[in-house]
Amino acid sequence: MAELGRRRLGLVCLSALLLSLAGGSRAPKAPRCPATCSCTKDSAFCLDTKAIPRSFPPGIVSLTMVNVAFSTIPEGAFAHLHLLQFLTKTFIENNDIQTLSKFTFRGLKSLTHLSLSNNNLQQLPRGLFGPLDVLTDLDLRGNAFRCDCGVRWLVDWLEQTNASVPAVYCAAPFEFQGRRIGELAARDFDCITADLAVYQSFPFRSVSVETYEFNGDQFATFAQPDSGFCAVYVWDHVELVFRGFRNITSRSAVYCKPALVDGGLHMIVAQLFGGSHIYRWEEAPQRFVKIQDIDTSRVRKPNFVDTFRLDGERYFLVADSSKAGSTSVYRWTGNGFYAHQSLHPWHRDIHADFLEVGGKPHLILSSAAQPPAVFQWSRSQKQFVFWAQISDLADVQMVRHFWVSEVLYVCLTRFIGDSRILRWEAQQFVEVQTLPSRGSMAVFPFSVGQRQYLVLGSDFSFSRLYLWDHLTRRFLPFQELNVVAPRAFSLLSVDGKDLLLAASFKGRTLAYQHLLVDLSAR
């Protein structure tokens, strides 16, 4: 009897367990229609909702949201609505939606109809409609689209899509106002800009920088008066940086100028004290060997060195800034550089620029005490002859020329007053622009691709980079560079990189990389 009782008790317990399990496996209740929405069997209409509802009844394939209380639809806004993966129609219209995430519609693979009309959208994130593979109808009307680089992708998309899209119009900028976005072309947008970003920092101060190529390698040389070196760096094609190569000992180097003559490399080292010298590079063993002294009776206080070719012969010039010295020209004779001509005595020249004017070689000498003077090369005398002054400005620290669309320009930079841009026309230089440049001792025009730049150094603030505007034929402010008291610049293109080197007198010497930025890709 006891055994029979135990069996009956076990059956009762098992039945209770089965009943309990059966009750626990009941299907969950279907989500209700959100309080701010009204739902039918297959659609939901939401009004004055403060956020996208967390759930909807099953079977919803059409969603309309009107007069919502939010202006941004973030990434994955519909990701929690798993039942909406078969959503075919979405109408988010007559709201104040201003911003959409690029991934707002991620997961809505079956969406065929989408309306974003009558919102406050000015731009749409690139690739917004990428996930919508079967989209057939799109309505963007009633938005204030700004037709700049931010909508260039939309122009391309409208040209390629098979979806039906009613006409959408630009609200800004002025030149596109009222135009149909679908009628714009990619060429209507200038979306490629540039940026100079610090690429390499050198642990020294310097007052000159020059770049050159020799035996297939790229080099940069820096005058370092503090450390007592004319330092030569070589470009490492593996690490893609400059690394130390050789040093030429110098007591007070102010300029280190490479001169490639007859297949060989020479380095002209201008010093404030102890005289200036010329070195020759020897391969075995690899070293710079001094081969010549520069006459100290002519060059007493050198400030700048330049090299140039005239009538098939090689020359270099030393701008002398002392009261007793004179700017001097030296000519290569086959076994050395020898004095050829003295220029501009007693004028305290601090810079020189060699250029062609009207098909004839000229030199422009700038001085801290006198207006810039122009000398013209006389082929009969084989000397430079004074030609003219190009302005009445004193305190011109540096002079540099550049060409734009076959027109010659000259920039005169000043430490106290504004710098000047002059254009060569009607056999004279005519001032066409002034640039604020208080504290500037260095100017450098350079071009990368079709872009013409001008960088003005400053001892008191950021150096300023300007970009040439071809429409107005003027330089416009483009970027500020945080380089301290630059004294010289040089441009080098190597391994697909365009590098601007800046010699700093009071801080680290820097190399900037010129980067192209596609604004339409943001």
Automatic annotation (TrEMBL):
Keyword NAD assigned: no
PROSITE patterns the record matches: EAR, LRR
Pfam families the UniProt entry points to: EPTP, LRR_8
Primary location group: secreted
Position of the signal peptide: 1-24
Lineage: superkingdom: Eukaryota
Keywords assigned: Glycoprotein, Leucine-rich repeat, Repeat, Secreted, Signal
Name the record gives this protein: Leucine-rich repeat LGI family, member 3
Species for this entry: Tetraodon nigroviridis (Spotted green pufferfish)
